[in-house]
Amino acid sequence: MHPASDFEQHRSALFGLAYRMLGSAHEAEDIVQEAYLRYAEETAPILSLKPYLMTITARLCLDTLKSARVRREEYAGPWLPEPVLTSTPADTAIEAESLSFAFLVVLETLSPAERAVFLLREVFDYEYVDIAGMLETTEANCRQLLKRARTHIDARRPRFPIPEQRHQALLSSFAQACADGDLHSISAMLVRDAKMYSDGGGKVRAALNPIHGADAISRFFLGVRGKGQPGVTVRIKSVNGQPAVLGYAGDQLVYMAQVRLEGDLISEIYIVANPDKLPSA
């Protein structure tokens, strides 16, 4: 039996791949546990442990995505990734982008194979020959999948990175404008064709369709002001390596909101209120 301590050295990388692939921390934990069980049951020598474990994890994720497709198509309203609380912003620009909520939303628009190749190559730095072996395909196909994924992601990637302190300041100002019901300030902080996605999972009140345009989004926030759960306090914390607005009713987290910035303006807003997706802390 292979030692558990060897597996634990790679747990964070396995979770990182699974979470980015699936957009769900709960499902990612299940994938990592299944990978461990397969590792523990392996009787043959393992020549290179991390590639072996990453291969198992990637293939399990692809299988999970096939079964998840129908569930997500039948989901009540927009499906958004499951937020993960992070104690501090991500350590590097690459890690911050690949973990960010906006990036995970873009990954959802890729095919499972495109997603796997992009992550293994761009985030985890594997060579094409290794990725081809992991995914049981050819190097040429991996290159084509990566080309399509890059084209799609580059089209949605902000032209200039936003410093974390500036990001937090803009988010705080927007949250305050929403709390004050300041229609003019809300609208002024949004790009004209801004989009808002809210995920209630059919369990709490949320917009069942994306809201498009600065005017419509501003009116939405003005309309819901004072209609939510009473006594909710707002805190700014790090979620997926970037600042987010967290709403608490007592100690219970009831929603998470994060934004995508284009310069000093907000281009997309993501609100997760589905209680099954919200962290307990």
Would you write up a description of this structure?
The chain is an alpha+beta fold and 281 residues long. Among the domains are: 1-74, Rna Polymerase Sigma Factor, Chain: A; 164-272, Nuclear Transport Factor 2, Chain: A (Roll). Helices cover 52% and strands 17% of the residues. It is built from twelve helices and six strands. It has a six-stranded mixed sheet. Strand 3 (232-239) and strand 4 (242-249) form a beta hairpin. Helix 4 packs across helix 8 (128-135) and helix 8 (128-135) crosses helix 9 (139-156). It starts with a helix and ends in a 9-residue tail after the last strand. 33% of the residues are buried. The model is unreliable at 90-94 (pLDDT under 50). InterPro entries: ECF_Sigma-70_Domain, NTF2-like_dom_sf, RNA_pol_sigma-70_dom, RNA_pol_sigma-70_ECF, RNA_pol_sigma70_r2, RNA_pol_sigma70_r4_t2, RNA_pol_sigma_r2, RNA_pol_sigma_r3/r4-like. Pfam families: Sigma70_r2, Sigma70_r4_2. Interacts transiently with the RNA polymerase catalytic core formed by RpoA, RpoB, RpoC and RpoZ (2 alpha, 1 beta, 1 beta' and 1 omega subunit) to form the RNA polymerase holoenzyme that can initiate transcription. Residues 102-153 form the RNA polymerase sigma factor 70 region 4 type domain. One of its GO terms (biological process) is DNA-templated transcription initiation.
Q: What fraction of the residues are assigned to beta strands by DSSP?
A: 15-25%
Q: Tell me which oligomeric state these chains represent.
A: single chain
Overall structural class, as computed from helix and strand content, comes to: alpha+beta
Helix content: 40-55%
Through-space gap between termini? 36 Å
Order of strands across the main sheet? 2-1-6-5-4-3
Evaluate the radius of gyration: 20 Å
User: Low-confidence spans: pLDDT under 50, at least 5 residues?
Assistant: 90-94
Sketch the topology as an H/E string, one letter per element: HHHHHHHHHHHEEHEEEE
Number of helices: 12
Sheet with the most strands, sense and barrel status: 6 strands, mixed
Any idea what the CATH architecture of one domain is? Roll
Protein name: RNA polymerase sigma-70 factor
Pfam families: Sigma70_r2, Sigma70_r4_2
Organism: Paludibaculum fermentans
Subunit structure: Interacts transiently with the RNA polymerase catalytic core formed by RpoA, RpoB, RpoC and RpoZ (2 alpha, 1 beta, 1 beta' and 1 omega subunit) to form the RNA polymerase holoenzyme that can initiate transcription.
